[in-house]
Target: Glycoside hydrolase family 16 protein
Amino acid sequence: MRVISAFAAISLGGAAYALTGSSHSFGHRHKHRRDQTSSDGWTMYKSLTGDGLIDFFNFEEQASDNQGCANYVNGKSSGLVYTQSDGKVRIGVDQAEDVALRNAIRMSSNETFNPSQNLLFIVDVHQMPSMCGVWPAIWFTGSGTWPETGEIDLVEGVNSYTQNTMSVHSGAGCWMDESNINGANLNVAASEGGTNCDATVNYQSCGVSVNSKTSFGQAANDVNGATYVLELTTDGIKMWWWNTDHGPVDVNYGLPTPSSWGTPTLQIDSSTCNTSDHFKDLMLIINTNLAGFFTTGVWDVNQAGGQEQCCQDVTGFSDARSYVLSQGSAFGDSAAWVLNGIYIFTK
Model:
């Protein structure tokens, strides 16, 4: 998320991958007590919904990075972030028609996280931005020097992508095993260094594009959203995802048992990456950048990330920045996140 190649995460196909089970989202889960512990040893630490979710984050106020044209603003005072009448949290983009920079949101958690805490994050997304010009992500970044204190991208894509990108970035000495990828493809071939997570060598490495074309964007929105999970412990990093109506039953009870979920989409073991050394004081970030070199790099590429038609053809604009800054009325619901909740467990 901090930096990314113009052509990273272009995936043209692949079979769907998701877990099966309950037809209910976390938002419709059964009531449970905070002090209950799952058979895998996970106990609820934070249940973030509605205003409680919003208050767990600080709003960054600055121009966006990565050559984007977003102007990050306070979500509350701008009215771009609020709890809907149904209890879901909406995170939008400003719709002023013609602007120098377009107001959007970057939220960073007011707590930091470390592998020694043995953490499980479950992010329940009802809707994510999906339209030309957007670069939405849910990710973690270390509080110190990048990339030495680490970055983990749980949800990321651009424009009308339908395939999610998951990535891990670090300093020197962190590697992943290609055999620990399931239902996804490396963005950089292993033979070209794609399993070396050192972002100073190749900032596209240790990134995968999920095969399923309902793992991101409008395709995910159309099937009631998706849930994304990060397990961060001293044993390593694991990431899963599933569409909301096909998640494991134990999650709905607030008693997650990852040992029963099947193979993670992406896994990095402590034997090839000491997480305590490479991931320090991570902040959870939710943001919607606009334009930027990832978005721009695939602006004229058909079928990038699973989208059927490139944004140059869809919009009639030759570049992302011009479109974003002049077409404010387009950035309505299609540019908004709607979150059911974020649930954090420890053991």
